[in-house]
Amino acid sequence: MSGISTTNVPLWLTEWLAEQQITLWGAADLRDFSTPRDATGQGFPFALSVAIPMNPQIMVTIQNGPNQAYADEYTRVNNCINALSETLAAEIKAGGSRAQALAASERTDTVNIKGDFPHKTAATRAGLGWIGRHCQLISRPFGSWLRLGTVFTDLELPCGPPIERNFCGSCTRCVEACPAKALTGKAWYPGLPREEILSVRTCDQWKKKHYLQYHKGHNCGICSAACPYGLKVLTKKSAHY
Q1: Is 104 left (phi over 0), alpha (psi -120 to 50) or beta?
Q2: Are residues 23 and 147 in contact, defined by beta-carbon separation less than 8 angstroms?
């Protein structure tokens, strides 16, 4: 399943993604956004967003807090994303277009606790899912039990359509599960500042105080483990990990 129609998508790209067993992906129109710049100082009008699922059997074990299995799975999937994104960027460049991979889980702004560009923005614009009350992307196939990769490019692709509403309904399980009380409970819509959903500093401080042994306090996942869309993955025979 991809986030876009494969009509007008280069055959090599669909075949390459299929070979990598990437079943959820799409292209995002980012011409209204400020993206990272390449070595020449140019930004990018588009991005390819790919989703790699986490092992649901591990994700369900962290409802009371992270563990070593989750920390190892987090590392495995991030490494997979980084390798895949770099290779995809190289393939696009080989075809004559510009491309630049965005590293997974890399904080380049330690003051505001964020990276160069939100993977979730590219993913929602590509139609892969929406942002839940836990400030994470939720997809239909994998819930929020996934991690995202982004490759910026000027290769023109059919984009989206973007998802511009949330499908959490009245559910607040993630908010209730958060031990740091860092989630406001507000429902996402495009353009809503992250701070309206999540106190990122409260979240960060809690993790560093209680879970420092897991990637220096960068891991928690309790809110994601509580998400009903994630729990549904356990009953899906089609889940791949």
Answers
A1: beta
A2: no
Whole-angstrom CA distances from 183 to 144, 197, 204, 213, 214 are 16, 6, 12, 23, 21
* Segment 5-25, tens digit of pLDDT: 566 899 999 999 999 999 999
Residue type, 228: P
| DSSP-assigned beta bridge partners for residue 101 | 151
Where residue 196 falls (left for φ over 0; alpha for ψ -120 to 50; beta otherwise) is alpha
Whole-angstrom distance, CA of residue 227 vs CA of residue 183: 13
* Element at 146 (helix H, strand E): strand 146-153
Report the predicted TM-score, pTM, of the whole model to 2 decimal places.
Answer: 0.93
- CA distances in angstroms from 10 to 32, 154, 163, 230, listed in the order given: 24, 14, 23, 32
Say which residue the tokens 């980012």 belong to: 30
Q: At what angle do helices 68-94 and 11-19 cross, to 10 degrees?
A: 160
Three-state secondary structure call for residue 66: coil
Nearest to 148 by CA among 117, 183, 185, 109: 117
Cα maximum dimension of the chain: 50
Q: What is the pLDDT of residues 174-214, one digit of tens each?
A: 999 999 999 999 999 999 999 999 999 999 999 999 999 99
CA distance 48 to 137: 16
